[in-house]
Amino acid sequence: xxxxxxxxxxxxxxxxxxxxxxxxxxxxxxxxxxxxxxxxxxxxxxxxxxxxxxxxxxxxxxxxxxxxxxxxxxxxxxxxxxxxxxxxxxxxxxxxxxxxxxxxxxxxxxxxxxxxxxxxxxxxxxxxxxxxxxxxxxxxxxxxxxxxxxxxxxxxxxxxxxxxxxxxxxxxxxxxxxxxxxxxxxxxxx
Length: 190
Description:
By secondary structure, the chain is α/β, with parallel strands linked by helices. The protein has a ten-stranded mixed sheet. The mean pLDDT is 91. The protein contains six helices and ten strands, in the order βαββαβααββαβαβββ.
């Protein structure tokens, strides 16, 4: 397991290499620390599911609105609804086109949670990697999201390949979650 500071000049390069080899990283976002793997790699998804102790839908990072909407399989009106709510603190769930990510992380209706964070590291990583990268809170299924590096490493050191340390993330909570359902936006978590 490698630990590297988020401000180290080699952090992005190291993260890209680890994810590209099917590894699991923990990285800081604008809300919490997140688990990241190549969202198109079934083996990496399986590793992440084993760590979290669950399977099912996961969210991914998008570097910008254009990319996020290019993955969508929705109407123009629905795209406008999404556009008005895409921000760093929100995850939008909507139907996506085929072959964007592993089927293992899609919802039953072929939907995907997509997030555009306001965090330099996340944006740079998602711009440079050729596939979407997962973003899911650092915890076991049903547990509290961890925001302290000591706690994170104590719990997950043996199961991850890279920890990108940004210190303790204070006062942050997970992103708000909205789902687009037949042209209507439903808030699932605030």
